[in-house]
Structures are given as structure tokens and as C-alpha cells.
TrEMBL record:
Gene3D superfamilies: P-loop containing nucleotide triphosphate hydrolases. This is G domain-containing protein.
């Protein structure tokens, strides 16, 4: 049995939405204000990812705190962000506590957040992990310049944007390895239902069929494990370690649902720029694309939070 087939099918379905958004922005599961700040949370969600992957912007967009069409403010968020809300699901409302984990995991705020979210008896019910297909923002101009020098000897010359992408993809993989270790520790000792959504952001920068197909192959394990990319091999390893069955639950009709998804997303419209090395990539997005993909992410989270354990 090909465990990862439904995840690939969902990605393929959403690549069609990326290319032809149309009228697909319906949100079935909505977030609402948590009016009682002292109530105990039922679900804990962690939003993870490397520096510059767009975690804060994704969080704001999902919570409608980033108005559609408004560009995100530039700047890092080195500290954790905490949010509480009520989520409508197929089995009723769920109280949720969401924590955005700093990308700088070795910083004091990062270590404190990791201890709070992943260590001891703490374990998030679900994880929304943000990646960006190599388009993570590099804030430091010196790092931008250094990224261009990390090219293997004898390798063909590549455009600046592609060299920045390769640099970011390696650091994105390193970050996921850290996240994988944290989740393996947190999830192996809990019996609660768990889910994982990989949000492949900034899709407006690579909005072509071939680029989307490449991204799907990179992030999602293949039918043949020998064909896995470095990233998808680690994702497969995480799920195998925790147990494939841990992510399988039943929907309202009693059908099994794998609560793992890899989703393209665009939280805001902006060209990519690394000014220190003159690396530019234009945005090919529009408001229909943003609305449709954010709705798909929100619906997936609501769907996963609403299914019952086997």
C-alpha cells in the first residue's frame, strides 16, 4: 500500500487551484475569538519553520490580521508568538492555543519556547510547519553574499536567485531535522490524536506546472522510497518513527483519514529580493490565489482537528 498517495493527490489537486484559482475560496471551518482567556485549551498547535520562512505572516493571514492585498511588514520575529481562538470543526467547537516557535531555535527565546511546547508532558496536537521552496528571507546582507560563494567546485554557474534558493533549501532541511527530533521526542510518549501540515509558502514566486511538480516531489515521499528527496526522506522517517497509524483517524462517516498534508500557500503578494546580491524574483500572484490557498489551509486544519480517534 502506498501510504503517501493521498498526500500526493491532495497536492496535485491544489496545484490546479494554484494555476486556476477561480471560485475556490470557501472557508468551511472558521476561527473565532476565545472570549474566556482563562479556559483550559483542548488543542495545542505549533507553527514551526526556519528563519524567514513566513511563519508570522502565515499566522496573521490565517487569523485575518493581515488584510487581503496588504503587504507584510518587513522584519524578523525573534520571539515566540502566542494566540488563542475557538475553531469550528465537524464535531463542534474546539478551543485552541497556537504558538509560533521562533526560527532561531538556539536563541534564549527559542530554547524557552521549545521547552514549553515540546518537552516533558507537553506535546502539540498538531503542527503547521512552514517551508518556502528556497525563498526564505535572508535578513543579513553579509549572509546573502556568503550564500553565493557556497557552490561546489566545478559546478555550473547558476543565477543568483537559484544559488540563494539552494542555500536556503539546505538550511530549511537542517531546520526540519531539528523539528523532526523535537516531534519524535514529544509524540512518542503521548497517545493523543496528532496531525501534521506542511505549508509550502510563497507559491506565487514559482507559479508554473513544472515548478509545482518539482516542489511536490521534493516535499512529499514517493511511492518508491529510493526516489525520495533529502527532505521527503526525513518526513517519511518522522512518520515511520512515530507510527503511520498515529496519523490515521476516522471522519464523520467512519472513513479513515490520514492527517498529514503538504499544501501550497501564498500568505501575501511580494516579489522576492536579496538586494546585496541583486537576486530578484517577481510575484505572479493575485488576490484570488491568496484567498483560495489560505482557505484550503484553514479547511485542512479544521478537518484534521475535527476527526475522531480510531
Amino acid at each position: 500500500m502506498d501510504y503517501w498517495r493521498p498526500i500526493r493527490d491532495r497536492w496535485d489537486e491544489l496545484t490546479r487551484v494554484v494555476l486556476h484559482p477561480g471560485d475556490t475560496a470557501r472557508v468551511d471551518y472558521r476561527m473565532k475569538r476565545w472570549l474566556n482567556p482563562f479556559a483550559l485549551s483542548e488543542l495545542a498547535i505549533a507553527l514551526t519553520g526556519m528563519r524567514g520562512a513566513g511563519k508570522t505572516t502565515l499566522h496573521k493571514a490565517l487569523r485575518h490580521r493581515l488584510p487581503i492585498g496588504e503587504s507584510a511588514k518587513r522584519g524578523e520575529s525573534p520571539d515566540k508568538e502566542r494566540d488563542r481562538f475557538v475553531l469550528e470543526t465537524p464535531v463542534g467547537r474546539k478551543r485552541v492555543k497556537l504558538v509560533v516557535v521562533p526560527g532561531q531555535k538556539d536563541s534564549p527565546p527559542g530554547r524557552r519556547t521549545i521547552s514549553e511546547v515540546f518537552m516533558g508532558s507537553s506535546a502539540p496536537t498538531g503542527v503547521l510547519h512552514s517551508t518556502s521552496c528556497g525563498y526564505s528571507t535572508i535578513w543579513d546582507p553579509n549572509t546573502q553574499r556568503a550564500a553565493l560563494d557556497l557552490v561546489p567546485a566545478g559546478a555550473p554557474a547558476l543565477p543568483a536567485v537559484q544559488r540563494i534558493q539552494n542555500y536556503n533549501l539546505q538550511h530549511e532541511l537542517d531546520d526540519f531535522l531539528q523539528t523532526k527530533d523535537l516531534l519524535q521526542q514529544a509524540w512518542q510518549y503521548t497517545t493523543k490524536p496528532i496531525w501534521l501540515v506542511l505549508a509550502v509558502s510563497k507559491v506565487d514566486l514559482y507559479r508554473t506546472q513544472s515548478a509545482l511538480d518539482d516542489a511536490g516531489r521534493y516535499y512529499i515521499p514517493a511511492a518508491d522510497p529510493a526516489k525520495d528527496s533529502e527532505f521527503s526522506r526525513e518526513l517519511r522517517g518522522l512518520v515511520d518513527f512515530v507510527g503511520q497509524g498515529r496519523f490515521v483517524h476516522k471522519d464523520g462517516g467512519g472513513q479513515p483519514v490520514i492527517r498529514i498534508a503538504v499544501l501550497p500557500v501564498c500568505a501575501y503578494l511580494e516579489a522576492y529580493s536579496a538586494t546585496a546580491v541583486n537576486a530578484q524574483a517577481p510575484s505572479h500572484g493575485d488576490l484570488d490565489l491568496m484567498s483560495a490557498l489560505l482557505a484550503k489551509v484553514m479547511n485542512t486544519i479544521g478537518e484534521f482537528c475535527g476527526v475522531e480517534p480510531r
